[in-house]
Amino acid sequence: MLDDEQARELAARFPVLRRTVGDKPLVYLDSGATSQRPEAVLSAEQTFLTQSYAAVHRGAHTLAVEATDAFEDARRTVAQFVGAEEREVVWTSNATEAINLVTYAMSNATAGSNGAGPDSRRFALAPGDEILVTESEHHANLVPWQELCARTGATLRWVPVDDDGLLRMDTLDDLVGERTKVIAFTHVSNVTGAVNNVAAFVAAAKRVGALTVLDACQSVPHLPVDFHALDVDFAAFSGHKMLGPTGIGVLYGRGELLDSLPTFLTGGSMITSVTMERSEYLPAPTRFEAGTQRISQAVALAAAVRFLTDVGMDKVAAWEAHLGQRLAVGVSQLPGVRLVGPRPGQERVGLASVSVEGVHSHDVGQLLDVAGVAVRVGHHCAQPLHRRLGLTATTRASTYLYNTTDDVDRFLEELSGVRRYFRVDD
């Protein structure tokens, strides 16, 4: 596990963390939304852009070769980081696009797309088929499945949550049946910080031959993750939540599944031959990467992965679990403040969402910002979960490897004065 001194040393490598907000040192507790980037990542992208930038997979000149090598080396680096093969990593713009890729490809399988591979009918849906999600999903892993159901006539079902926002896993077996075709679920909740039981979902899916789709946006940046070991069929995550840039995400898919999955976007770069009547497509993953790619972003994401690898994901996970418990314990001791998710002592990542009685989360966030503490406010793209908990919004503090116990304590100190400031503590 890291310690405060090591976390401060890491923070010194992130330029933005040196700044102040007003006259207050910045305490950045919004990494669950977007993490900051170390100098090594900024430098890697700048070096590529100023020395080797060119289109990939197209030119024969020196810059094009160097760019292609860097682009594919990035794929290899990221694949190794998540326990995958190179051919199982598809570049996307973000995790939202990655999940939409799967849902639209399944639509194309249902329609009989020309871009379908062998055994593509396994992705087709019919009225009466079922897709299972959870009540705690981010909208990016809910709305695309709603739309797929609307296009195909399939039925959407979901695993409910309890009063703390934790999944009612006791309902899983009753919800999974012979018509279940997909089970899509988050690895770590972006609201509660709970780490969900992937093995239980995978076992339920295998029992009926359903596909599993994992939202790994809050797990890949914070936990050691091996998709082969988890045994999921598809997974999605974003670069900007793991020290990388925006505009780059990853869809992981089992090699044999990607080879059969119909194409989503079509055009240049993903074809082998084109006539006026029809086209033939390259194998995965290139068949899913139409058009000019996110080249410098992929290079920067690989640099972020190397940074995290050098630190050690086991150490990152242990440190954030420690910070998460400090958050949970501290919040639970504040009168009039409700902690969402696992209770103190229960497993959680370094994230805590809270509701302050009598004060809207936006007002809480603004008051914290005046004190230099940056947090996320709102429904965190999880409206159904908040509605189930009787909340319109929460205030979320989320840590990363560059945060210290002092950062957590500053958040707790400022949070403790919110109700007094707004005169609702009587």
Automatic annotation (TrEMBL):
Keywords: Pyridoxal phosphate, Transferase. Coiled coil: none annotated. Its cofactor is pyridoxal 5'-phosphate. Its EC number is 2.8.1.7. Pfam families: Aminotran_5. The keyword Aminoacyl-tRNA synthetase does not apply. It comes from the Bacteria. InterPro entries: Aminotrans_V_dom, Aminotrans_V_PyrdxlP_BS, Cys_dSase_SufS, PyrdxlP-dep_Trfase, PyrdxlP-dep_Trfase_major, PyrdxlP-dep_Trfase_small. Catalyzes the removal of elemental sulfur and selenium atoms from L-cysteine, L-cystine, L-selenocysteine, and L-selenocystine to produce L-alanine. This is Cysteine desulfurase. It comes from Kocuria soli.
